[in-house]
Amino acid sequence: MKAGPDRGFSHIPVVFEDEVILAVDKPPGTVVNKAVSVNGYTVQDFMQSRFPDIFPEQPGTGDDFLMRSGIVHRLDKETSGILILAKTREAYAKLINQFKHRLVKKSYLALVHGKVVPAEGEIRAPVGRLPWNPERFGIVPEGKEAVTGFRTLEYLILDSPTGDMPATRLILKPLTGRTHQIRVHLKYINHPILGDYLYAGRKTSRDDRIWIPRVMLHAYDITIRHPVSGQNQTLTAPEPHDMMDVRARVTGHPNT
């Protein structure tokens, strides 16, 4: 299966590829799906450029595999990390089915406000669109079941422009896949993600954005059942430089 020239997409690193799937390390700021409201190159543009014989730029309607250019799942624009893409219709269908039946395992890295206590646990709270603001999500009784496991990797004191900032580096494992689930759940336990312009609160997000470039959330790894071999396969995207740069401003570690 011959690949195209990747015109203008050198900023999207390929971390794995075989005959049926592709995994990329999506950079922050890159949108996954094309839309009228989206400016700039997307992951979908990347797939259409790399595989022009498979994914036409104008796919028509009625065929999800072509319409989505093999995109099996999504990440928010400001979220970086591992993204799985399908190169065949059969692989696409099998991967979609794995997501549907919660067979896919994912881990995220996040930098959050405050010292998270306890250091390990599970957040269970239904997530849905806010009735008074349908562009945002929150914890609502009529929302869909949502479960996120978390574990503390490190407690930090960061040197921010507004003074010493307590923070926690977490690894998170969403057991469900609701839109904005991790961001909403962390806000719910009063530890919003650093730089989260939607859920950290107006003043906090304004102060964050003075020195933090984006939402500090990274899709670190994903485990799928390979659509051909049937074997479990884990694919990883290393912690990005901008998150390491924020952590480098550490001035101390609070008592654990």
From TrEMBL:
Q: Which UniProt keywords apply?
A: Isomerase
Q: Name one GO biological process term.
A: enzyme-directed rRNA pseudouridine synthesis
Q: What are the positions of the active site?
A: D76
Q: Which InterPro entries match?
A: PsdUridine_synth_cat_dom_sf, PsdUridine_synth_RluA-like_CS, PsdUridine_synth_RluC/D, PsdUridine_synth_RsuA/RluA, RluA_PseudoU_synthase
Cite the EC number.
Answer: 5.4.99.-
Q: Show the catalytic activity.
A: a uridine in RNA = a pseudouridine in RNA
- Which residue spans traverse the membrane? none
The answer on whether this UniProt entry bears the keyword DNA repair reads no
- Briefly, what is this protein's role? Responsible for synthesis of pseudouridine from uracil.
Q: Per its UniProt record, what PANTHER family does this chain match?
A: MITOCHONDRIAL RNA PSEUDOURIDINE SYNTHASE, RIBOSOMAL LARGE SUBUNIT PSEUDOURIDINE SYNTHASE D
**What is the name of the protein in this document?**
Pseudouridine synthase
Source species of the chain: Candidatus Gottesmanbacteria bacterium RBG_16_52_11
